[in-house]
Design goal:
With about 375 residues, the chain is α+β, with helices and mostly antiparallel strands. It has 12 helices and 21 strands.
């Protein structure tokens, strides 16, 4: 299969062109203007006038030309699949195929051998890093006959299509999960829009549901039982941690909740995280609480982590520092929460678990397709 592959310089099979070096006068409509950050989609909300386009671009992008990033991010590619006019910045190089299939070209540039050659030609002392236009043409690659190029690009295009479909499916599943939680969890003392049972929600003070834990590690829990609260995964102590330092950690058992004070777009006042991982320890910077009632754990971890449910209680019981929010214990204790019956918790917990399992399964399938593509990029090319 690979007997007829021949070595070429990239400049022998493509023409390389530069984008504009000047920042354009952006418009709200006109000719779409692309830069390095648009390489994945070749879509942008920036435009220039048709007059500016005619003046600045003697070589205009064409259908099946290939863009390659050359400043900042180096060596990412995408094929133009539209006949509409496109303008582009100097951070992108335009590769016009002469004796090579367009998608095959895009794929072979992604292989580790070509990427290494591109990296060797990159001006690494510059900031941002860049590869000069003339150096792009000196990059070496091995090419088969056109028929084999077509066969390879067909295979990889089908794989790309599967990855895209999987990404769309995963996006829809995440939207479904968000919708389910939005409709089945209470907010601002209002009952959920979607109910499974007619049993009432009961209102409790936080202190009636959870008790602040002060139980410290007695030194018997090993380092491999440290829990990373942010990701709810097993973590590790810092390498310099001593046995005495380990004893400052709190016991964090399955079913407990911990407060994490990092603010983000999703969590305005920090958040609670329920431990569904196992018995372990967490840093003393976290506030740990034991549950006083018998929660369904799958329900609890979604309920207590919900910004919709907890935003107002946390807003009323936290103080801000530069980087974090601190939980004020006497204030959180008197905040009220509406809790469904255990039967309804069980139903909701099952629903949340099913949707999360579907997301995790599709994430795994997506990763397997991505790994398969990476494998083929290394094995199909010399």
């Amino acid at each position: 299969m690979n007997a007829k592959w021949e070595q070429h310089k990239l400049g022998e099979v493509v023409s390389v062109f530069d984008g504009t070096h000047q920042t354009p006068n952006y418009k709200t409509k006109g000719i779409m203007f692309l830069s390095v950050e648009n390489i994945n989609t070749l879509l942008s909300n920036k435009y220039i006038s048709e007059n500016e386009y005619r003046q600045r671009f003697k070589i205009k992008p064409q259908y099946l030309d290939v863009f390659m990033t050359r400043i900042g991010t180096i060596g990412k590619t995408n094929v133009i699949t539209t006949h509409k006019p496109i303008a582009y910045y100097v951070s992108l190089a335009l590769l016009r195929p002469q004796n090579i299939q367009s998608f095959f070209l895009s794929f072979i540039i992604q292989t580790s051998k070509v990427q290494q050659d591109i990296w060797k030609s990159t001006l690494q002392i510059a900031f941002p890093q860049k590869i000069n236009k003339d150096e792009i043409g000196k990059v070496t690659l091995a090419l088969p006959l056109q028929k084999e190029q077509i066969d390879i690009e067909k295979l990889l295009l089908k794989l790309d299509k599967l990855i895209t479909l999987q990404q769309r499916k995963l996006k829809q599943l995440n939207l479904l999960q968000r919708y389910i939680k939005e409709k089945t969890l209470p907010s601002q003392k209002e009952l959920p829009k979607l109910r499974f049972l007619t049993t009432p929600y009961n209102t409790y003070k936080f202190s009636e549901l959870f008790k602040k834990s002060t139980k410290k590690n007695d030194g018997q829990i090993l380092q491999n039982h440290v829990i990373s609260v942010a990701s709810m995964r097993w973590g590790k102590l810092p390498k310099s941690s001593s046995e005495a330092y380990m004893k400052t950690y709190f016991i964090f058992n399955k079913g407990d909740i911990a407060y994490e004070g990092n603010r983000s777009k999703s969590y305005s006042f920090g958040r609670f995280v329920a431990n569904d991982l196992g018995n372990g320890i967490v840093s003393h910077v976290f506030s740990v609480f034991n549950s006083k009632i018998n929660f369904n754990l799958e329900f609890l971890k979604n309920y207590i982590n919900s910004e919709q449910v907890m935003r107002d209680p946390l807003r009323m019981s936290t103080s801000r520092t530069t980087m974090m929010t601190n939980l004020v214990l006497k204030d959180i204790a008197k905040q009220t929460l509406m809790i469904p019956s255990k039967d309804e918790q069980d139903l909701l917990g099952s629903l949340y678990k099913i949707t999360q399992s579907m997301i995790e399964l599709n994430e795994k399938q997506q990763q397997e397709l991505i790994y398969l593509k990476k494998y083929l990029l290394q094995k199909l090319f010399i």
